[in-house]
Specification:
Helix content is 76%, strand content 0%. It is mainly alpha-helical.
Length: 193
């Protein structure tokens, strides 16, 4: 048997790291972040507690990495890096993709929503990742200003809250919630007014 290559070691590290993060998401959502333990995460991930510490220095580091990974995914899907001046077409894409995100991985986003509603996690999340959404929020505000809204920042917040509610309903009742109709409604209300 030949020794493992650097690429093989990296693949193993990535696989174990992902397993730990997936386990942490489940444990944090089920037990609450504050009540969960590194031992419970390690057990769920199928690794030893010592091995978990080879990947993450603390439970808080696991949480931070988990939040960053989920936010990175959402930002990548929404193509936030390319948020200059929003066109109507681009805004329609944001609406559609925002609603599709929880539908593509419902269990993962259900757990994330559950986790993000825990007070100590919410505070950490606001400190850690809110700034990464600044270009998105600015682009939406600029879009609403160009559409003639008196208070584009308030409209950006209202629009975001509506999207959050639609996403929540997609997670709660994915079989029956009219996601496509919700997309059409939001486009009609905010793009084609």
């Amino acid at each position: 048997m030949s020794p493992r290559t650097t690429e093989q070691y990296e693949a193993i590290r990535k696989e174990r790291s992902t397993a730990i993060l997936d386990a942490a998401l489940y444990v944090f959502a089920e037990q609450g972040y504050h009540s969960s333990s590194v031992a419970a995460i390690a057990k769920r991930a199928g690794v030893s507690k010592g091995l978990l510490y080879n990947y993450f220095s603390s439970k808080e580091e696991v949480l931070k990495r988990l939040m960053h990974d989920l936010v990175d995914y959402a930002l990548e899907v929404l193509e936030i890096e390319h948020m200059d001046q929003l066109t109507d077409e681009r805004f329609e894409q944001i609406i559609a993709k925002s609603i599709d995100i929880p539908l593509q991985q419902p269990q993962r986003w259900k757990l994330f929503m559950s986790l993000s509603m825990q007070q100590d996690v919410t505070e950490l999340m606001l400190r850690e990742v809110l700034g990464r959404f600044a270009p998105y929020m600015q682009a939406l505000s600029t879009y609403f200003a160009a559409k003639g809204y008196d208070d584009p920042i308030a409209m950006m917040r209202v629009f975001s809250a509506l999207l959050d509610g639609v996403q929540m309903h997609c997670l709660l009742d994915p079989e029956n919630f009219p996601a496509e109709k919700a997309k059409e409604f939001l486009i009609q209300q905010f793009v084609k007014q």
